[in-house]
Structure formats: C-alpha cells, structure tokens
Amino acid sequence: MLVTDFDYDLPKELIAQHPMEPRDHSRLLVLDKDTGTMEHRHFYDICEYLRPDDLLVFNDTRVIPARLHGFKDTGAHVEVFLLTRLNGTDWEVLVRPGKKLQVGAKIKFSDELGCEIIDHTEFGGRIARFSFTGIFEEILDRLGETPLPPYITAPLADKERYQTVYSRERGSAAAPTAGLHFTKELLAKIKQMGCEEVFVTLHVGLGTFRPVSEAVIEDHEMHKEFYTVPPAAAAAINKAKAEGRRIVAVGTTSVRTLESAGQDGTIHAGGNWTKLYIYPGYKYKFVDALITNFHLPQSTLLMLVSALSSREVILRAYAEAVKEKYRFFSFGDAMFITKLAERKTMTKE
Fold first, then answer.
1. pTM of the entire structure?
2. Which fold would CATH assign to domain 3-63+158-348?
3. S-S: 301 plus which of 1, 272, 295, 311, CB 3.0-4.6 Å?
4. Helix ranges (DSSP H) in the chain
C-alpha cells in the first residue's frame, strides 16, 4: 500500500484551534465499521452506544512541559523537546537547530538545570544527559512549556485543557486526545450504566506523530514508546475477553497498549517498549470498538483506524466529516467506530 492511499483533502479552517467547552459538547460521528453506516451525534450521547457489560480502556498518561529553551556556551539560543525518559538523567530529545547541537554540546536552561548531548538517535534526535540541582520534575514545571501540535497556532488559556480529566502518570510529549472529550460527570454516568473502566499508560512519544516518509507504508518503521499495564487492568481485560464482552479502546494509544501487551492472545501486566505498527491487514486481538479523533492525512494513526474497519469505509467517513464541517485533529471532534447492530440489539432488550 502507498502512503498516498491514506490521503484526503482537509480545508485548513476545519483544524480546531481551541478545545470545545464543555468537553463533552464536541460532535460525535458514529461509524459502523462493517457497513459504513454513519450517525451524527454529540459526544455526550456516547452512552447510547455503550453496552452495560462493555469494558472501556483509558490511557492515563499526563503531558509534561516538554519544551525547554536554553543557550549553548556560545550564547546561541536553542530548543530542546523532551520525548522519552531513559533513566534518571538521560532523555531522548528533539533539538533545534539540529546542526548546532552535536555530541558534546552543552546547554544551560537556568542555574539549576543544564544538559549535554551525548549521542544521536536513529530518527534524527539526540540523547541528552541532564544535570540539575533539586527535583527534576519541579524544575521542569517551572521552566518547561506544555507543547501543542504545530497545527495549533492559537494560545491555550488553560493548560489543563490539553490534559484528560483522568491524567495522572507524567511522561507524555503529547496528549491522548480522544480522552479530552470526557468529563468527570460523563465518566460517572458510564460507570453507573454498569460499564467497567480500566486504566493503562502509554507515554506518547515520537512514534505517534512522526510522519511517514516512505512511499510504501510497509517500509515505515515505528519509533518505540513505553507502556504499562497494571495487574488489575490486565486481569479485567483478559476476563472481559474470555467472557466475550466488548472491549472499547479510548484512543489510539490505548489500542497500541492493548495490542502490544496481548500479542500472544493474553494481556500481560507490567511495562515494556512497543514499536507495534498497525495498518490494514492487521488482525486485532483485543480491540472491538474505538473512540478516537480525526487524524492527519497519510498518518500512521489513520492507518491504525483503517485496520479496524477498512481504508474505504474510513475515508468515506472522513469525507462526510469534512462535508459536515466537523472539527479535526487534537482539539477537534470525535468518532466512535463500532458495530451499530450491537447497540440496537441492546436497545431492544
């Protein structure tokens, strides 16, 4: 398959610049993954499409203030973007300008924080070794900026609007945006229905938003990201699978966690790195339905959702969303990819 097979036309004005208020008032395109049938709703209607025995899987990662501004010993201004923590002092980072930050370069952010570039990565990044006085997380909270995707140019008044209401495990370079639509009240309503909720963690790194540069999608290599599945969550997911209950992933990061932790058909608890690359032809082992946002053209995320349905069905849905002026990308509207017949059967009961 070619990367151009996953292209679509998107008017620039449909790229959402601000989050919806309230969170659950965003629009919701409900898509039957088999037939392509669509229904246009709002996110607060999601309960009408959930079943009392559903298991919902959320990613509870929290975005860190990952963008740091500093100076080389030459006085030149540089930017360091934290991607993945490797140990107590070393991080995989992106740097700008890259040509000026080779191995051995030293950067000062403040009197209490600095770093040295100690290695290159295979994807054009760097390994930076940080030195600091005090608690790194507290220093980062003071000096760092919460990163927004480059297609969002409007300032964000409330930084918490780029966090889910259930975020708690620090470590992401970007938000798991499908979760931005949930309010605490909506989560409580879903739980009152009888749905089961579990939380896993995948820290969003370069793998999620790195563009596909190869013409043939099979030639693309995913960057690794770290995930964790708590023992209680693993047990609950395996039990739901054994009982034939529907497993609903909230966001593509939850999808990657589930499918990575369950490659042999059983979800294994613990933490691990994943480079799992999902595109049409992949057979899902645990994900039955997916709550997700609208993704960039030619992106690995668009390929992932296409694998749950088909490329043709997903691109028709995207064309319909453009026609109906849905809001796209991180602060945009949502899709629920499922089987509508399942919802209707439960409604009759």
1. 0.92
2. QueA-like (3.40.1780)
3. 295
4. 136-143, 184-193, 206-209, 231-242, 252-261, 300-308, 311-323, 340-348
Going residue by residue through the chain, which has 349 residues, state the pLDDT in tens, using 9 for 90 and above: 999 999 999 999 999 999 999 999 999 999 999 999 999 999 999 999 999 999 999 999 999 999 999 999 889 999 999 998 999 999 999 999 988 899 999 999 999 999 999 999 987 889 999 999 999 999 999 999 988 888 999 889 898 999 999 999 999 989 999 999 999 999 999 999 999 999 999 999 865 667 788 999 999 988 889 999 999 999 999 999 999 999 999 999 999 999 999 999 999 999 999 999 999 999 999 999 999 999 999 999 999 999 999 999 999 999 999 999 999 999 999 999 999 876 644 444 4
Q: CA 91 → CA 97, 109, 169, distances in Å?
A: 18, 15, 17
The alpha carbons of the chain give a radius of gyration, in whole angstroms, of 20
Residues 6+ apart with CB under 8 A from 301: 208, 252, 292, 295
Q: Which residue has the tokens 């995989």?
A: 92
For the four alpha carbons of 23, 28, 30 and 33, in that order, the dihedral sign comes to: negative
CATH code that applies to domain 67-143? 2.40.10.240
